[in-house]
Amino acid sequence: MAPITVVEGRRLALSNLEKVLYPATGFTKGEVLHYYATVAEVLLPHLRDRAVSFLRYPDGPEGQVFFTKNVPPGTPDWVTTAEVPRVEGPSRMVLVQDLPSLMWSANLVTEFHAHQWLVDTPDEADRIVFDLDPGAPASIVQCCEVALWLRERLARDGLETYAKTSGSKGLHLLAAVRGASSERVSEYAKALAVEAEKAMPRLALHRMTRSLRPGKVFVDWSQNAARKTTATPYTLRARPEPTVSAPVTWDEIEECRSPGRLDFQAVDIAPRIQDYGDLLAPLLDTEAAGSLP
User: Which of 57, 108, 165, 205 is surrounded by the fewest CB atoms within 10 Å?
Assistant: First the structure.
């Protein structure tokens, strides 16, 4: 039987702690759980009150990988859940509201993905997101060029932009918004992606068409759709190494000259939090959120 751990009064059976999940580095499940416990203070505010879907990889990234959107079987009754709207009808999803539910979720071995809206206000988006995805031989270096253009363009509309690595190959740009539906935010994001392509035709692309992708940065605006989710800040990713979707500064983006410059793994994050705090904390300030033009 898995050892029982008590987290803030909740009993958790944390299993297979010695299991190696990332063979490239020997990073174990126990280290995954330790990582999430270490970053909980900055991660939880970005999860709280958002319906969470899990990308699970219980045997490591090279094993079976699958999405879990509905409440998983065996979910403890103390884990908060909420009914959320879906095109095919409402469904019940998990809310990660506190440290015990975070550790229970992490024990399933997951990436955390969330919508751009809160469960209490599903008809109103509170974030806009752009997923900058490079097509080889383009890399995160080219993503940074596009990011700087988008930052300036969003600023002209009164929106302050923040950035994080995707934890894979690209960058995510986020801004806090208010007073708009997911549909309206999607329309605005698409318009800016089209504008980026016109401004940087050799670099940016607003369509997903595979044949057009090599050497360019796909400005994915579609994750603003109400049904879509995006990898949350500080989540581990199901990659060969324990990479993290890590907040980054604009100075780091401006200075990025090589593809590995913005690669961050689990061991890098605690020192960054100590140095910078949560670089995405302003996204949580509802009074500072901007309105779409």
Answer: 108
Can you tell me the distance from the alpha carbon of 113 to that of 47, in angstroms, rounded to the nearest whole number? 9
Beta bridge partners of 56: 66, 110
Backbone region of residue 75 per phi and psi (left: phi > 0; alpha: psi in -120 to 50; beta: other values): beta
Per-residue pLDDT tens for 123-178? 999 999 999 999 999 999 999 999 999 999 999 999 999 999 999 999 999 999 99
What separation, in Å, do the N-terminal and C-terminal C-alpha atoms of the chain show?
Answer: 57
The count of C-alpha atoms lying within 13 angstroms of the C-alpha of 116, restricted to the half-sphere facing its C-beta, is 32
Contact 119, 98 (CB under 8 A): no
Angle at 131 between CA 281 and CA 292, to 5 degrees: 65
* Residue-wise pLDDT tens digits, 209-241: 888 889 999 999 999 999 999 999 999 999 999
Burial class (CB in 10 A: 0-12, 13-18, 19+), 58: middle
Report the SS3 class of residue 274: helix
Strand 171-180 versus strand 290-291 pairing type? parallel
Nearest in space to 53 (alpha carbons), one of 247, 223, 232, 265: 232
Residue 80, CA distances (Å) to 58, 71, 77, 168, 221 in order: 22, 10, 8, 30, 30
Give the integer Cα–Cα distance in Å for 157 and 242.
36
Pseudo-torsion of CA 252, 254, 258, 260, nearest 10°?
Answer: 30
Domains of the chain with bracketed CATH: 17-114 (no CATH), 125-263 (3.30.70.3300)
